Amino acid sequence: MRGAVLYAPGDIRVEHRPDPAIIEPTDAIIRLSATCICGSDLWPYRGVEKHDGPAPMGHEYVGVVEEVGGQVATIKPGQFVVGSFFASDNTCEICRSGYQSSCVHRVPMGAIGTQAQLARVPLADGTLVATPEPPRADLVPSLLAASDVLGTGWFGAVAAAVGPGKTVAVVGDGAVGLCAVLAAKRLGAERIIAMSRHAPRQELAREFGATDIVTERGDEGVTAIKDMTGGLGAHSVIEAVGTQESMTQAIRSTRPGGHVGYVGVAHGVELPGDELFFSHVHLHGGPAPVRQYLPELIGLIWNRDIDPGRVFDLTLPLDQSAEGYKAMDERRAIKVLLSP
Amino acid sequence: MRGAVLYAPGDIRVEHRPDPAIIEPTDAIIRLSATCICGSDLWPYRGVEKHDGPAPMGHEYVGVVEEVGGQVATIKPGQFVVGSFFASDNTCEICRSGYQSSCVHRVPMGAIGTQAQLARVPLADGTLVATPEPPRADLVPSLLAASDVLGTGWFGAVAAAVGPGKTVAVVGDGAVGLCAVLAAKRLGAERIIAMSRHAPRQELAREFGATDIVTERGDEGVTAIKDMTGGLGAHSVIEAVGTQESMTQAIRSTRPGGHVGYVGVAHGVELPGDELFFSHVHLHGGPAPVRQYLPELIGLIWNRDIDPGRVFDLTLPLDQSAEGYKAMDERRAIKVLLSP
């Protein structure tokens, strides 16, 4: 099969990789219908995160089941399935509490690499959720978004305790931030402030439900949020970047007793304990337990209540993955869908 | 009047200070029935926290109202009252959301100094809660505990989402940690693990409701908690110290999706963002909104359902404050009550 491999920062190649095979009796093999490039793929691509290349890339996926292991009971060949970036058994105590991305048996899909034509999915019964029937082609991008960015934005909104009557600010206008806006809208937020300085992203944020746009960043961004909230700060702030500046901005934009939901993968972030202590915020986040939300999100997409696939503003053949990474790195594209 | 003043690290003197007077029409003057020394008073006493001495000390208090300003409507002279370490209006949006210690008009009582015979209490109607009638003498220590350590331990337990069926660990065996054990018991925790290596504190922890004692600290303490919880960690961990080691221990002792409630005033703490991200814990804490809990806690004390005053294991006249600080600094006393 063909698959994307990172050799070194900036050096993505699509090349022949061995076809995956069933290793554990709980595995499934899927043929990818679509895959994509994640904001978090840019960390190693930019060399910010060390990778021992050559390494297969990608952890978002939808596709059709080709084969299952002997212990797979509910997932069947021929089903169209969506999974998350961590395979999980969905039966352990941590999974049952809703934290499948910390499953005691979790397997990171990024190590398997789903920017490819085929992929092995461990713990198939726990990991994969089948659609009611094979989807129409125009639903595929939204189902693919559910695999990570939508589920991650959703978790950010839940972690930030978004709800009716609340003012929500979203730090970060990447695909996750935009999906967090969509989630905040669905969860009933009264006011949704998207922090963005890029016109096409502002526009999509508004279409997803943002009521206000703030273009300032850092301390000026904090001041803008305070000015809009009677000096108090937002009730809920979703952090979808993962840098020191964005985390600081999120915490300082939140009122005492408010909630910060952070889903940007933290890189080089240090939180000063005294500032956090006196900020009085609730802080929760981490790798989103997307599996928890998949049945609900697939239902919303299936019924065309939401259209998160709109975050894909560039579609390329898998073989042009290098161009896809470049477009996202240079912020020419919000998110790139790859057709295997 | 007489009052305790910190001149320099280790140098506490009780001396003549001017009697307080009504400054704002919302003030009350109270005559202290009892006051005490807080673990947080030890930070400046030890020189860990800078203080521009000479500075009045103390922020815990119960007493009888002597005089009220012209705009005080509900608090009356002659009432026995309990207040918290932040004066608060109890009417602003932040107070109404339950975060009175971040009231937009808050005044730190520590700057006024309640280790004294008299004290001015700003925002009296919002800050003070009167008992049904003057209390019997044996209730005074517990009412004084409600002023800070009990309310703080209670907030720690609430912030750690303590509840029925949960396993709770408490890091710190000072008065706040012990009160957190008591709070966890009242809030229905199934298992309460007190982390302590001091026999008299272990004993009080057990009397307050601890089911288990762990004497190990740091990584060994984390391992002990994991071993007791099927490798997962506790559902709820209350941090009641405020150091890097205790915060790290608390976070690592908590299972993914679990809650850390931190009430130890953070000193020199830096939380690494990536560890926090992948820990998947909820983090909440800060200066406890004791005012929120005072009516309930006073009720429990009044009905003799709880006896938090037992954390006071040394009572001294106010004039011997220096000896009180020394006893707490050397961990000879858990908490020192001062009789003005």
From TrEMBL, chains A, B:
CDD domains: FDH_like_ADH3 (cd08287). The keyword Disulfide bond does not apply. The keyword Metal-binding applies. GO terms for molecular function: oxidoreductase activity; zinc ion binding. Its cofactor is Zn(2+). SMART domains: PKS_ER. InterPro entries: ADH-like_C (IPR013149), ADH-like_N (IPR013154), ADH_Zn_CS (IPR002328), ER (IPR020843), GroES-like_sf (IPR011032), NAD(P)-bd_dom_sf (IPR036291). Transmembrane segments: none annotated. Keywords: Metal-binding, Oxidoreductase, Zinc. Belongs to the zinc-containing alcohol dehydrogenase family. PANTHER family: DEHYDROGENASE, ZINC-CONTAINING, PUTATIVE (AFU_ORTHOLOGUE AFUA_2G02810)-RELATED, ZINC-TYPE ALCOHOL DEHYDROGENASE-LIKE. This is Alcohol dehydrogenase.
